[in-house]
Amino acid sequence: MDLPSKMKASCVSRLAFGTLVFQPYKYQQILAVLSANKDIANNIDDLALQLCARRVTNYSGDMRKAMQICKLALSLANNGKVTTADMNRVSNMVLSSAVIEALRHSSKPLACLLVAMVLELKDTQLNVACARKVYDAFRGMMAVLEPDIKATISINSFKKLLVSAATSGIISLEPTVFTSVAPGRKVQIDPVICEELGDTGIVPEVDVGQIVTALSRDPFWEQRLRDL
Question: What Gene3D superfamilies would the database entry show (predicted)?
Answer without folding.
Answer: 1.10.8.60
